[in-house]
Amino acid sequence: MLDEFVWGRVSRISPEAPVPVVEVIRESYYPGGAANVARNVREFAREVEIMGLIGEDSQADRLRHILTDNGIALRGLCTSKSFQTIVKTRIIARHQQVVRVDRETPAPVPTEVVNRSIAQVKEMITGLDGIILEDYGKGFLQQSFVDKIAEIGRQAGKVITADPNSRNKLHWHGLTAVKPNRSEAFWAAGEPWREPEADPTRDEALLRVGQKLLSIWEPQHLLITLGEQGMMLFSRDLAPYHVPPRAREVFDLSGAGDTAIALFSLALVSGASAIEAAEISNHASGVVVAKLGTATVVPAELLESFRLTENLST
């Protein structure tokens, strides 16, 4: 997707309707959706490949240029004349989001795109360290596609992680790790929503959901993000592990999940334990939510977050 930000100021209310008039000052564009995950990984990795579907339109051209400028390889990017490149436009005034406008036309992903993507993963797999399946519920990730990619990755001994979406009920069987947020986890487990307990380690509903998803999906690890409560890590051979929140201030939650799956996956690929990967992911997310817009974390910021935590603990 392409994330567009329209920055402006509000000085009056429209005479046509009781809505603010935003005087535009500037516009900026960033990779969105799975492209934002790739952008987060690229801050820490020399080579990143992206796979997905865009249209053949001016917004697709803009997205291609941005991805290339960010050092992200486009070999896996597919185009289709029948597909409209997804654009999310956020209008922001005085550092507050006034409205978001989504431009997309839901349509089935062409079979030839799916087949080409599977063939390309087979071709590229030996040169990959890991695969992130980022689901925004737009149709590219289908069960047969996910199953085939997971099979290819497992046979090659690669780290495979997924960030699910509640609009697209997929079975994430046999992956290295899956990272839902709390509401997605309850939905996937077929459990009624429960408000969080003050102490996540004593949240019986959350603990039950975590164990249930470990049984259903059979990943090695399950990382449930909990917003202001941090994260909860479930693993086959470990007791549930709570990662407390690291954000010093929360300014904008958009993109925090992208950063979380990107850094969790990258840490696992780099040889970190699941607990270490969860801690790294949590620190990175804490940095990103203090920024406005579709943001990433860079190595210096991540190290500084760890230093600040160490200083507070001492």
Structure description:
It is built from 9 helices and 12 strands. By secondary structure, the chain is an alpha/beta fold. The protein has one domain: Ribokinase (UDP-N-acetylmuramoyl-L-alanine:D-glutamate ligase). The strands form 3 sheets. The chain has a 6-stranded mixed beta sheet, sandwiched between helices. Strand 11 and strand 12 form a beta hairpin. The N and C termini lie far apart (43 Å). The relative contact order is 0.11. The mean pLDDT is 93.
Radius of gyration, CA atoms, in whole angstroms = 20 Å
CATH architecture: 3-Layer(aba) Sandwich
Structural class: alpha/beta
Strand order of the largest sheet: 7-8-9-10-11-12
Uncertain runs: none
CATH homology group = Ribokinase
Estimated share of beta-strand residues: 25-35%
Proportion of residues in helical segments: 25-40%
**CATH level-3 fold name:** UDP-N-acetylmuramoyl-L-alanine:D-glutamate ligase
Give the total of domains: 1
> What does the main sheet amount to?
6 strands, mixed
What global shape is seen? globular
Look at the structure and give the CATH class.
Alpha Beta
For the residues shown, what is the average pLDDT?
93
Number of helices: 9
H-E string? EEHEHEEEHEHEEHHEEEHHH
